[in-house]
Amino acid sequence: MIKLYVAALSLALLAGCGHAEEGDPCQVGQPQCQDESTALFCQDGHYVANRCPGPEGCKGTTVGQQVVVECDIRGTVSGDECIQDYKGLVFCQSATTALVCGGDIWRARTCSSPCVDGQPGIGEVEDPGACD
User: Fold this and answer.
1) What one-character DSSP code corresponds to residue 28?
2) Do 19 and 65 reside in the same domain of the chain?
3) Tell me, what DSSP letter sits at residue 8?
4) Are 8 and 63 within one domain?
5) Assigned domain for 78 exists
6) What is the pTM of this model?
7) What are the C-alpha distances in Å from 52 to residues 12, 113, 120?
8) pLDDT one digit per residue (tens) for the chain, 132 residues
9) CA dihedral of residues 17, 6, 104, 54 (deg, nearest 10)
10) Which among 33, 49, 77, 100 is placed 20 to 30 Å from 56, CA to CA?
11) How many CB atoms lie under 10 A from the CB of residue 43?
12) Cα separation of 9 and 103, whole Å?
């Protein structure tokens, strides 16, 4: 389950506890923070690392009885790696420019449909196809 935090510009997912490393076996739906600036997501049964270059980095918090991992992707640039779980995700950098995850790297796009209120955010283009 993915929650999009537009104001915080982060991606949050339900997570398990532990100190996993990239390449360790995992189950889908159990991402973790490897360190302060790296999140681990389960892909094809093994953890893959995802940079969290924004000032909030990677943080784990408890919501009820579940741990939530927040990965701040501010600072991501075209050419940075993105994980399969983000495929198709649009990260608006301005009113008319965005990064789109192609399933392997973030690619810069000019959008014909502006981001909501012209503010940076995640998935905030009314028509994500407008950034193809």
Assistant:
1) T
2) yes
3) T
4) yes
5) no
6) 0.72
7) 12, 27, 16
8) 223 332 234 455 444 445 789 999 988 777 889 999 999 988 889 999 999 998 999 998 777 767 678 888 888 899 998 888 788 888 877 777 888 888 789 988 887 766 654 455 555 555 556 665
9) -70
10) 100
11) 14
12) 19
